[in-house]
Design a protein that fits this description.
- About 20% of the residues lie in helices and about 30% in strands.
- By secondary structure, it is α+β, with helices and mostly antiparallel strands.
- It has a five-stranded antiparallel beta sheet with strand order 3-6-9-13-10. A four-stranded antiparallel beta sheet has the order 2-1-7-8.
- The longest helix has 21 residues, at about 60-80.
- The chain starts with 11 loop residues before the first strand and ends with a helix.
- The relative contact order is 0.18.
Length: about 240
């Protein structure tokens, strides 16, 4: 028999996103997501309760390490193995003392990270997607807004366990600069109803992390339904991050 011993990685996670045509790639903005249901990362895991982009500890030097040690070798590996892959590569990274360790790969973007990443992209993203699909990504660049984005997931009471649906959602007509993404909602008799566990995601932007959080939570405070729940601390751990 064999015993497999896994190394314990003591650090903080972030998500890195790559768009590739199988030969070349562009690096998208990174993000940090929050999986557990409760404030302070307590309780059971969920599909995601919120996300922040950019990530304060992912400075230029750290991202250069990720690109050199992870991204480029991954693309080279695809070519070496003759894997004709076009699309997104999601890389889960653990920052351990300033060094990146890969903890997972996935062939997609992440949710709710996508809702924090996409509002920061300045380039014509459809053009980049088309270039990826046609194998013409070489020489393409990605322009990104310097602003922060904070995404807060609004979920049904009881999620990720049992929850009720069909609750009328109020506050969607408010004037807001935030983006409200629908995930688990439906319409009936001109009303918007809850229709899932993770119902909405609200993304706020700002010149600082504090501003982005304030904008997101201001919009969240104007939305209501019977049993609505959300985390109050998305991005809070990064406000005074010391490394």
């Amino acid at each position: 028999s064999k015993v497999l011993i896994e190394e314990f990685l003591n650090g903080i996670e972030l998500s890195v996103f790559v768009l590739t045509d199988g030969k070349d790639y562009v690096l998208l903005p990174e993000a940090k997501d929050y999986k557990r249901i409760g404030d302070g990362d307590t309780g059971p895991n969920t599909g995601g309760m919120g996300a922040v982009s950019p990530v304060v500890f992912a400075d230029q030097a750290f991202m250069a390490k990720i690109e050199d040690q992870v991204v480029r070798p991954t693309i080279e590996g695809l070519k070496r193995e003759k894997i004709d892959y076009k699309g997104f590569i999601f890389v889960g990274i653990m920052n351990v003392g300033g060094n990146p360790f890969v903890i997972e790969y996935n062939a997609r973007m992440g949710d709710p990270e996508t809702q924090a990443v996409m509002p920061r992209i300045k380039s014509d993203f459809v053009e980049l997607l088309s270039a990826s699909a046609s194998g013409e990504l070489g020489g393409k660049t990605l322009e990104v807004h310097d602003d922060y984005a904070v995404t807060v997931a609004l979920v049904s009471g009881g999620y990720p366990g049992e929850y009720e649906t069909g609750k009328v959602i109020h506050g969607l007509q408010q004037q807001t600069e935030s983006i409200i993404f629908h995930a688990g909602s439906s319409t009936h008799n001109n009303e918007v109803l809850t229709h899932g566990g993770r119902v909405l995601a609200v993304s706020g932007k700002g010149h600082t992390l504090e501003q982005a959080r304030a904008h997101a939570y201001k919009t969240v405070s104007g939305i209501s339904w019977d049993g609505l729940y959300y985390r109050k601390d998305i991005g809070q751990d990064l406000l005074n991050y010391k490394g």
